[in-house]
Amino acid sequence: MTDGLRRLLDEAAIKEVHLRYCRAVDRMDWDLLRSCYHPEAVDDHGSFVGGVEEFVAWLARMLPLLASTTHFTANQLVEVDGDRAWMESYTRAYHRIAATAEAPAADYVLNLRYVDQLERRDGRWRVLERVVVHDSERFDPVAGAPVEPGANGRPGARDRTDPSYRRPLP
């Protein structure tokens, strides 16, 4: 295998770690989330800094308070040096806050950058250290009457009952 091909394959595998992370958070799939990190990894989300199991427990408490989350990843810059790598992933995250008697529904929108140190072990890339940078944040009130998820199509689920978990595909 050429060096160029090896680099491209490594970059694809590293980028896929971040995409799995986004899916894990949006579907609240804690096993998938754990698979993105080495056991001794440290995640620094600003309001949370700690190990993988503490991070999973923190998200398991926080995410059910939201109606939904959706992460979109755009630019991803990867630098590989043997079995170690650095990646910066630009992400827009939407966190839907359900309406209450006191306030309408709102989207908490964040422009984030995930700055990761990764390591390949036993042929698998995983995050060793993550710092989440908040470039901007805003709250967008949801105008009009609330529409239930799936009212105009197939509803998603924040667990393994979501249609994306069906295998094989029809």
Please render the helix and strand layout as text.
Layout: H1 3-27, H2 30-34, E1 37-44, E2 49-51, H3 52-62, E3 68-81, E4 84-97, E5 106-121, E6 124-141
Parallel strand pairs: 1-6
Antiparallel strand pairs: 1-2, 3-4, 4-5, 5-6
Poorly predicted sequence stretches spanning 5 or more consecutive residues: none
Which band does the percent of strand residues land in?
A: 35-45%
Tally the helices. Answer: 3
Helix content: 10-25%
Give the strand line-up of the largest sheet. Answer: 2-1-6-5-4-3
Structural class by secondary-structure content: alpha+beta
- What is the helix/strand order? HHEEHEEEE
Which key terms come to mind for this protein?
170 residues; 6-stranded mixed β-sheet; alpha+beta; 3 helices; globular
Short description:
This protein has helices at 3-27, 30-34, 52-62; strands at 37-44, 49-51, 68-81, 84-97, 106-121, 124-141. By secondary structure, it is an alpha+beta fold.
Describe what this molecule looks like in 3D:
With 170 residues, the protein is α+β, with helices and mostly antiparallel strands. The protein is 24% helix and 43% strand. The chain contains three helices and six strands, in the order H-H-E-E-H-E-E-E-E. A six-stranded mixed beta sheet has the order 2-1-6-5-4-3. Strand 5 and strand 6 form a beta hairpin. It is globular and about 60 Å long. It starts with a helix and ends in a 29-residue tail after the last strand. The mean pLDDT is 93.
